[in-house]
Amino acid sequence: MKNKKRTDNVVGIVCIGLGFLLLCAVPASAAEGASPSWRPTYDVIMMWVNSLILFGVLYKFLKNPFLDFIHQKKMETEKDLQRAEDQKVMAETKIKESKQMLEEGEDRFKKIKERIIAQGEARKAQIIEEAKEQSQYMMTEATRKIDSYIIRARKKFREEMIDIAFEKALEKIPEVITEEDGERFVQDYIHKGLA
Hints:
95% of the residues lie in helices and 0% in strands.
């Protein structure tokens, strides 16, 4: 209601201002053709009356459309302001949600990073342990193979030594053993075999 009175006052002030401008312009134009008769006074009075009638008619017929126009623009402006305020609130809400999501994302990223580092450390320890076990197995296997090679080498060496000793013995026997010793060996063998 208060806004409607204010709008009515604005319309009235606009009409008065237009009337004042019109009235000020008319006496000046009437003064140009200065004649001593009553006609200039009559013209001024009639112009005032016509102006008042015109302003009255304009006020009567244009007041409500003008007020409706102003009221409509005011309502549109208020709606625009309300819409802008709602958008501002929504934007602030989205900004808060985005900040919260960003903080949660950073926390989640830190946790994932820590978990990956922990998994990496565990995997590293596991790989080191597996490498130690593998190297221990390889050392044990190498030791077993070396021992096997040594045993085979000793056996082969012994066999070669026996063969060499046997060959040497065979070479020396004819020099040391005579035919009589050979016959005696044969006789002893025969007696031992029959006994």
